[in-house]
Amino acid sequence: MRLPPRFLFFLNAAAILALTTASASAQTVGTNPTPGGVLNVSILTEPVTLNSGIHTTMYIGEVASKVQEGLISFDADLKPVPSLATKWEVGPDGKTVAFDLRKSVKWHDGKDFTAADVEFTLKEVWQKIHPFGKAAFANVDSVEVPNPHRIVLHLSAPAPYLLNYINAYGAPVLPKHLYEGTDIVNNPYNVKPIGTGPFIFKEWVKGSHIRLEKNPDYWRKGQPYLDGILFRFIPDAAARVVALQSGEVDVSVGSALPATSLAQFQDESRYSFNQIDGNYLATIAFAQFNLNEKHLSDKRVRQAIAYAIDREALLKMVYLGYGKVATGPVPSSVTKYYTPDTRQYPLDLKRAAQLLDEAGYKADAGGKRFGLRLITAANQTQYTRTAEFIKQSLARIGIEVELQIPDYATFLRRVFTDWDYDIYVSSMHRMPDPTLGVQRIFWTRNIRKGVPWTNSSGYSNPKLDAIMEQAAREPDETKRKAQIKEWQQIVQEDVPILELVEPVWITVSTVRFKKLALQGDGLFSSWADAWLAPKK
Amino acid sequence: MYFALLKEFLRNRAAAAGLVILVLVLAVAALGHFRFPGDPWEMAAAPMLWPGEDWANPLGTDLMGRDIATGLVSGARVSLLIGLVSALISAIIGIAAGALGGFYRGWIDAFLMRVTELFQTVPQFVLAVVLVAIFKPSVATATFAIGIVSWPPTARLVRSEFLLLREREFVQAARSLGMGDVRLIVTQILPNALPPVIVVGALNIAHAIQTEAALSFLGLGDPNVMSWGTIIGNGREQVVDAWYICGLPGIAIVLVVLAFNLLGEGLNDALNPRLAEK
């Protein structure tokens, strides 16, 4: 790729843009809430159900979190703050966790919320059905309910990550009286949820909208400020852009607007940007190698590919600077465990060529070495563009990439069931704790054909397995940090997965949209403290 | 005879204009890469440069800094190739089905026409989408799919011509001289049935180019080949900030489709004896 000086100017401009918009996140915070008004919201894709307890797709959580609540919530720095639980304490040996529950909280149908609801949801939903709850609550042996407003979990081994998963998205509490004895996955209340949250579910018109109304008996007195929320489903990206500009929509959450359109929302007197809402998800976009492929089974080939991809340029070109270059499997937002002190692969074509030569794949007269297939799903343009970028990058070291861009279902089948791919491009939420969010993609025991978002590279390293398993039950924080650091160093050396970019989830709203405080899990905020300032 | 045809054809100004546009597009497809060499996928400059903003990229760049002029040249080749080959496929199938049905009539005709109806009742574009989605999206499958869905009108047309012509005196004469079925079909009837088929063929090319663009627009094009539809599909999100990314290939498609339509009509006028007598 030849880059003219103009281009460098462009890169700087993009970097400055990213910086200024990051500071503008705070613009959403306001004081003196004005009650009243209905908030119009657009999200990327219409959810398939409205119960985050059984399905972790983020679009479901974005809507359901206004109705369902978790025991805790997170502040802007991802520290736990009270929600349905007022207080919690972890026993000195790390093997008990006790929660004091809020009193006089009522479900939307008028029944009292008690510890029995939490016990039921934990045993029947989080432990049995929830996709990562299964792992998160695996160590919970027994539950004790000394009184209706206290619940104590007894663990078989310490689970230091547990408190990171009990917000409205990771572990919403369901009403026992409506779910007990039913087929939970097919319970009718999954699409007309009854929760304890600030908004009551009113109607869902498929293909059009979901309407929520203010809960007048909400336990936070005086909240919510809004009279209601209307989630509108606009399938076309360009139409979502126009809807926010025309005022038809007030808030666009979860990067519902394409990065390439964000330049139209730079006027700070009219729009607010929020880039921390998705910090909780800690997403990394990556390219994964299929280690069963002849060439890719060689570590040197994988490292050569890593050296050939200029991730700075990728970030600027495809993500327009909205994000960071990823340096390893643990995202930088997980500050407790993140380390940049791992093997890095800056752009170095000579080094890449040398590694390929060493691996025995010399270039032929035309400069070509071998071909690979790169697959990604057609539904998200940033991944198809990333794939195009990688194809161009690898051509320069003589690897000819054939792009395959099928629909989402075919993509999932080929990558996770058939393993019929050489490289795939997508992203995964790494979540606040590596044991649950990161281990799943490297762990030998998680090589499970047919289960999406598991270890489908076929990478298996007994030494790493031992470290990860140790870290999962290590009560000592210092030791655990050291273990997770070594883990990051091992996978950056072996590169079964090439971590590319940490994209940010961007919320764009009219400046009239305000909240009392920002949240690191803002995508799943209850919006009890949100309001629409009056028009000027 | 051919000279007279050409004269007749060129007397029609619209048809002449169509021919001129077509020759230009062919020239771009054949020679364009001398002026705009290189890989159309190469991210060669800053993204979203407007046309004329930098003369190194006279028609600007797309969202990922790919030169649009290079993309248009590549797209011209892809579009013409797919248009011509798929129109040829549809002509071959259509002529074969129509000729056999019209010549033999009876159960062969009934069977072939039921098959034709089967294809006609399914919306063409939907069928093309399904075919491309079942097979892997590539230039070959797109060409094949477009050819497969667009033959029924040709078959109908050829059949009706054959039904008329097979009763004519010259055919009866050839038959009474002992000519076999194959020779009758190929040397006697088909040449006389061809003129309207050529007209439909020209229109089929135009339609095939549009269909390919629509498929690429929906992301069902060959992800390794830059076609006009691919450029439009990639630039779609940006239609407000950078309309030229969609606009330029859009204009190219309009021009080529218009050219083939004018050509088709011109041929129709030139080949149709009833119109010529006027």
Structure overview:
The complex is a heterodimer of chains A (536) and B (278). Chain A is an alpha+beta fold and 536 residues long. Chain A folds into 3 domains: 25-49 and 189-279 and 506-532, Periplasmic binding protein-like II (D-Maltodextrin-Binding Protein, domain 2), CATH 3.40.190; 69-182, Dipeptide-binding Protein, domain 1 (Alpha-Beta Complex), CATH 3.90.76.10; 283-503, Dipeptide-binding Protein, domain 3 (Roll). Helix content of chain A is 26%, strand content 20%. A 7-stranded mixed sheet of chain A has the order 8-9-10-1-11-19-12, with helices on one face. A 6-stranded mixed sheet of chain A has the order 14-18-13-17-15-16. In chain A, helix 13 packs antiparallel against helix 14 (477-494). Chain A is globular. Mean pLDDT of chain A is 90; it is low at 1-24. The model of chain B has no long low-confidence stretch (mean pLDDT 88). Chain B is built from 12 helices and no strands. Helix content of chain B is 75%, strand content 0%. Chain B has a single domain, classed as Orthogonal Bundle (MetI-like fold). With 278 residues, chain B is mostly helical. In chain B, helix 1 (2-11) crosses helix 11 (243-271). The chains are: A alpha+beta (536), B mainly alpha (278). Chain A binds chain B through residues 1-2, 4, 6-7, 9-10, 237-238, 241-242, 258, 260-261, 263-264, 317-318, 378, 381, 384-385, 387-389, 391-392, 395, 402-407, and chain B through 39, 41-47, 54, 56, 63-65, 133, 136-137, 219, 223-224, 236-241.
